[in-house]
Amino acid sequence: MTGSLVYLPLFLKATGTTIWLSWLALLIGAVGGTLIALLRTSRLWPLRIVALLYTEAFRSVPILIVLFFAYFGAPVMLGFDVSPFVAATFALALHASANMSEVVRAGIESVGRGQWEAALASGMRMREVMRHIVAPQALRVILPPSVGVYITVLKESSLASIIGYFELTRTGLLVRETQGGGFGPLLALAAIYFILSYGISLCGAALERHYAVGGATAGTDAVVGGMA
Amino acid sequence: MNGAPILELKDVVKRYGSRTILDGISLSVVPREIVCIVGSSGTGKSTLLRCVNGLEDIQGGEIRFEQTRVEARSKGIKAVRMRIGMIFQQFNLYPHLTALQNVMLAPMVVHREDRKIVEERARALFEKVRLSPRINAYPAQLSGGEQQRVAIARALAANPHLLMFDEATSALDPETVGDVLAVMRDLAAEGRTMLVVTHEIRFAADVGTRMVFMDQGKIVEDADPREMLAHPKTERARQFLSSIRG
Amino acid sequence: MNYTFTLRTVFPYLGGLVPAAELTLTISVLAILISMAIGAVVAVMRRSRLRAIRFAGAAYVEVMRNTPLLVILYLVYFASPAIGIRLSSFTAALLGISLNAAGYMAEIIRAGLIAVPRGQFEAATAQGMTVWQMFRHIIFPQVFRTIYAPLGNQFIAVILASSLASAVAVEEVTSWMETVGANSFRFFETFVVAAIVYVVLCQTINLARLQIGRMLFRQPDAR
Fold first, then answer.
1. What confidence tier does A226 reach under pLDDT thresholds 50, 70, 90?
2. Which has the least CB within 10 A, B131, C88, C141, C164?
3. ipTM, 2 decimals?
4. What is the pLDDT of residues B128-139, one digit of tens each?
5. Which of B53, B52, B86 is nearest to B164 (CA)?
6. CB environment B27-52: b (16+ within 10 A), e (fewer)
7. Is pLDDT at A17 greater than 70 in this prediction?
8. Considering CB atoms only, which of B95, B110, B141 is closest to C128?
9. Which residues of C touch A64 (CB under 8 A)?
10. Do chains C and A touch (3 or more CB pairs under 8 A)?
11. What percent of chain A has pLDDT over 70?
């Protein structure tokens, strides 16, 4: 196991890559998810159906096949190569957006009807209602489960190793190969992921306690994203 | 109303961590007695019952039921439990079973009796507690008083030698308390042996053959109910009884 | 973009899809069963009176929920020879997925146990039931009602997780998509077919769960 200590800087860099990839995917997913959530709560039923199908589809399909499709299918279909990074970000963001849309929807819906009506009755326009009344309250409900989504994305980022992206898992596998096989690097991998993931979930729990004042939250435990 | 004691507690001590709940309880019950245990909340009344059938273990003293030593975690405790029927404050009916199934379960599963015999007995018991029309209802569809009467039938179905009531009417609406007390009166009149933890002093005075007043884990007074109500011998009993009267 | 979506191109390969789908289903069903057994043990451990056992149970859950499934699979697949056990790809994948799923299952079962009021245990014990009788007649039926829906969702999660078995050379549906895609270059078509298979599996399970639930738990409403 001491042999792998030499690789520590490599592991650290790879950890950074993993965190960066996950963070980017979550960001894009959050934006996308918010859009989908708005569609889901729209007054026009075709929009609602489209959003529903989108969400259901991406929660019934393993992220791995989306990843393969993005990486292998793109060159054939679009005519240009797609880097593993781009393919991974795309697939992770897509999946995250489906999960985030549910989280954001729950957040929007957690703001009682009465609030909308009071705000509209006072003359505010929809945009202003959203901005001053709904968003602040919804955010309180959205933040804790978002941490859960982030942890899911973090774990799913390990799949990028399969298409050759040099994040943490791929690095660990490589180190293992150069060491002639064995336990050590894989355990180190597991340990790093665990520390990252568990640490973030503790922050999420703290966030939850902080925001718990004044209303129910969905909780970081709400199963968003499955088993990864 | 005499004979060998059916239940004997000798210097029973029960502690929870550093708190002493039962502080040297000695009590003897002979068959056909109706012993009513009264006292303020938290004085160990319920715990006493729960020690008798081994739901709680004891740290000192001895409990004997029908000459068998009661030890909470022993193999023999099952035989003791098969002879004692317990009725809880929160009814504790099994929600996924109908009233009839609730009553029939233990005799079939624990006492291994024949299904037909058990069903006959169960139906007769429903007649007795006046709930025959509700035989196939689920607990969620029954009122509190009805649930408690089913619970009583459930306890009776196992042919117990001793019935223990743990504040059986405390969780009921005032209107339904009377129904349950009526059933308990009938059971007393039949000659059952009953250990009743209760706040219903009137019931204790009417039906009880003995009233036991507990305070801070000890038995302070143990006498005929009407005697104790008219002439309490201790200051604590006097205070308690006057505070709940009226 | 000179790529036209022609589903017909995939037809010759559909024969291989059937055994692949079978494998997906087999791994998933076995993994659910195994994870329920392990999860039940861990859930009971978390309710033990002994702090060390409670901690061990909690640790298991946290490790499984915070480690990527892929890493767990690699650990089982690559590291088992190192401790002297030879596992087939299928067994390694099954073991890895089961161990991971058990972490989630333990929490589901634990929530089910917590939902049973303490009085139920007491009434059953007071009637003289043995632990096994109590569990079988009183506790299990109530726990099952509580965990039924989350169980269905967990089944779906396992179906999706089974796609990772392709990473350790199990020839299930995702592996089929990879191989056929590589051979035919029709990645869009294979993706759509694979996606349809998964969607059908997941939605069928969901609908079955709802329907069976309606039949099993046919209790009239409370007053």
1. low
2. C88
3. 0.88
4. 999 999 999 999
5. B86
6. bebbbbbbbbbbbbeebbbbbbbbbb
7. yes
8. B110
9. 163-164, 166, 174
10. yes
11. 91
Residue A223 has pLDDT above 70, yes or no: no
Low-confidence ranges of chain B (pLDDT < 50): 1
The residue with tokens 């087939």 is C88
Which residues of chain C make contact with A189, given a CB cutoff of 8 A?
A: 71, 74
Each residue's pLDDT tens digit, B171-192: 999 889 999 999 999 999 999 9
Beta bridge partners of B87: B165
| pTM (2 d.p.) | 0.84
Find the chain C residues whose C-beta atoms sit closer than 8 A to any C-beta of B.
117, 119-120, 122-130, 133, 137-138, 141-142, 145, 219-223
**Which is more confidently placed, C178 or A127?**
C178
DSSP code string of chain C: ------GGGGGGGHHHHHHHHHHHHHHHHHHHHHHHHHHHHHHHHTT-SSHHHHHHHHHHHHHHHHS-HHHHHHHHHHHTGGGT----HHHHHHHHHHHHHHHHHHHHHHHHHHTS-HHHHHHHHHTT--HHHHIIIIIHHHHHHHHHHHHHHHHHHHHHHGGGGGGGT--SHHHHHHHHHHHH--HHHHHHHHHHHHHHHHHHHHHHHHHHHHHHT--PPP-
Residue of A nearest to C99 (CA): A227
Chain B hits for C49, Cβ within 8 Å: none
CB contact under 8 A, A228 and C181: no
C142–B53 CB contact, under 8 Å = no
Rounded to a whole number of angstroms, the distance from the CA of C169 to the nearest CA of chain A is 12
